[in-house]
Amino acid sequence: GRRRMLEHAHEPAVTTDGHAVLVKANLASVAEAALAADSGADGSGLIRTEALFGDRAQAPSVAEQIAAFEQIAESLPGRTLTIRTWDVGGDKPLPFHTHPIEANPFLGLRGIRAFREDPRLLVDQLEAICRVAREHPLRVMFPMVTTVEEVDWALARLDEAAGRLPDGRPDALEVGIMIEVPAAALRAEALSALLDFVSIGSNDLTQYVLAAERGSALLEGLTDHADPAVLQLIRETCTGVAEGVEVGLCGDAASDPGLAVLLIGLGVTDLSATAASVPAVKDAIRAVSLVDAQDLAARALQADSAAEVRELLRR
Ligand code: PEP
Ligand code: MG
Question: Are strands 13-14 and 20-27 parallel, antiparallel or unpaired?
């Protein structure tokens, strides 16, 4: 029951055959970090910085960003936080970032692309992340990365920011990208060669692989992250990444307990869900073996529709 589930929320999620999975929480505010701690989250797999500072008319200073990241870290002591750099464009306006008008914003200057011409906001943010990483376990994650060249550019901006610190980039800071563009999933090995981790953004990956705008009420049947085409790209990411690179998932798919089991079966080892769903996702993982999850994943990859995948989850 629900009571037993909550009692165990603060224990790790381990399958019946001993496979441990991290279940983290997505955060969009400092206040949410306390909620995540209450829910037993194993850290945060996604801090949406454009939401964290989205109410500001002016860009937060490096010091203000450090203060917010430290506050979150103090709510989740010892647990790894994944700070995503500014993800602007498409559905994410940012008051202090000037953005051109585009005919197709979701296919335009989104995420990291928006800072190529003027990287100052990005480099300031990376400086704040580097400074906090000296005291707390942190990971930095770049959104909407599509090409190897963009990975190289992002790493160069990180080095530029780290150059402002007396001792350079902290060794403990892990570096990764979101896999939310189909091209990035297909080229996961090349893109991840210099990284510690990747994290699948199933919301945007679903939108882009099905060419169906996220949140569109007109395309309901087409925007399901349980679609076999989405699952296939998740699988390709898990099998494709370079040696030793960890694969997480921080889209809404991770908040659905049945789907979370399927994701584990596909090879995802690190989930980040809404804070409220962490106990139920942990509970679902504890109820299955990794072998059963892998069997479920194999069957889901053979399904002809998202509806068929959901039918498999129900059984
Ligand atoms: C995603 O695209 O799945 C994701 C986690 O990022 P966001 O929803 O913020 O675009
Ligand atoms: Mg996204």
Answer: antiparallel
Q: Whose CA is nearest to atom 8 of ligand 1?
A: 203
CA atoms within 13 A on the CB side of 149: 2
Residues in the chain: 315
Task: Report how far ligand 1's centroid is from the alpha carbon of 201 (Å).
Answer: 5
Residues 281, 40: Cα–Cα separation, whole Å:
11
* Residues at CB less than 6 angstroms from ligand 1: 46, 48, 87, 180, 201-204, 250-251
Phi-psi sector, 23: left (phi>0), alpha (psi -120 to 50), beta: beta
Q: Work out the burial of residue 31: count CB atoms within 10 Å of its CB; fewer than 13 is exposed, 13-18 middle, 19 or more buried.
A: exposed
180 CA: nearest ligand 1 atom = 2
pLDDT tens digit sequence for 150-192: 999 999 999 999 999 999 999 999 999 999 999 999 999 999 9
Q: What whole-number distance in Å separates Cα of residue 301 and Cα of residue 263?
A: 11
**Ligand 1: which residue has its CA nearest to atom 1?**
201
Q: What is the pTM of this model?
A: 0.97
Residues 6+ apart with CB under 8 A from 254: 45, 202, 260, 263, 271, 272, 273, 281
What is the complex's ipTM, to 2 decimals? 0.99
